Predict the structure.
Amino acid sequence: MVRKPRTVHVDKITNTVKGVTYTSYYLRRSYREDGKVKHETLGNLSDLPLPVIDLIRRSLKGETFVPAAELFRNVRSRPHGHVEAILTMIRRLGLDSTIASQPSRQRDRRPGHDRRASPLPLLQAGHHPALARHHPRRGTPRPGRRRGRALCRHGLAARAAEGHRGQARAAPLGEGVLVLYDVSSSYYEGERCPLARYGHDRDGKTGRPIIVYGVLTDADGRPVAVQVYPGDTGDPPPSPIKSPSCPASSRLSRIVLVGDRGMLTQTQINTLKEHPGLGWISALRSDAIRGLLADGHLNRSLFDEVNLAEIASPDFPGERLLACYNPLLAEKRARKREALLAATEERLTKLARAVSRRTEAPLSAAAIGVKAGRVIGRHKMAKHIKMTICDGTFTWKRDDESINREKLLDGIYVIRTSEPAERLSAADGVRSYKRLAQVEQAFRCLKGIDPAGAADPPPAGAAGACACPDLRPGVLRGMAPASGLAPAAVRG
């Protein structure tokens, strides 16, 4: 006799005790005995997750479950992320407005109407040797043909490309606009570039000749011009501003240059004063701020109620000084100074012990001085340490007077500008100086391009529009500079 299979089910039991509801789940079998329905508990499922309990319940009711991989099959996969990244950058740079001034369906569709297409034609491949090699354009242009027609492959009419080319190049800068300028460097692998010389590498690479270059951007950090200098140039001037081929100098009668205190030194500012159409925004060095505090022109009581105060000083005639106080910056500087002092003191303590152990052959004062110089120079704390060095003897202590003098400057920075108040408010002046962070982003972009096969030298010439030249450290191989050793510019 074939035994009838037993059926089981999941039973949900809810009990309320003293206002608290308890829910339990049991695996049970129901049967009849003497005309009564009885239940037999086969297991307690209360400790299982609810999705698992639901899966058991539905399985017992006859539903069949299979892995999702068996039900779905990838017929085709279309790339999307790289196209969306390019479209996002097009909108961020305002390139869509060069296609049509007003939003429209045609304008929104044209840059990316075919999502299957590669976005690389949107990047003018002819402007970058590596892109041009790895992604050659169809139909290599003739020598007399102008570049920049890659957008036509994505639906742009030829008349749109021609009619808006001038607008696209003129868009970054307008009359009286702020321009940002800063310098960086990249080390050079090669021997034939006269611009590659040994100097201060801002990337921390040692033992390699470098090339210094300055990047001029608009207020949003979009590169406008690149100027290249020999690697031993310590204080390059912002010469792209007045270069005849700079896009700004040929159209605008006034430009406000924003540079940090290391770039726009007093010498450079004196040079800028010779050009009536040039204004500047920079910052004072620590010694100048300390002089303002000593002369009484700057007082910390100015920041009791507000963190921004405009002052004047006869040492800076014709300039506005915008004194700012940032409590977070003050805390950061104090914390960093204490950490560097502690690290320096730890190394000095080890050095003092090593000197004291040399009893049979004590170290000379010159040898101790060399070792001590390396220690205090590691974290640049020599200004806060007093040392006593003799033959076989080395002692040190903190210079509390120097530390307290530096504490007075914690959190204080002073912006200097030639712009009058009717053209630039104090708050806007501080915001404009902080926009220099956009140039740092431009440097990261310029140095972060894939350097594969970047051996082809880019053309050298006067400062001009830059379309992301390959400036990644270590990639400057065989760059052809301009004749002589005069500053040369690289045009993308």
Q: What stands out?
A: The mean pLDDT is 74. Residues 354 and 409 are 36 Å apart (CA to CA).
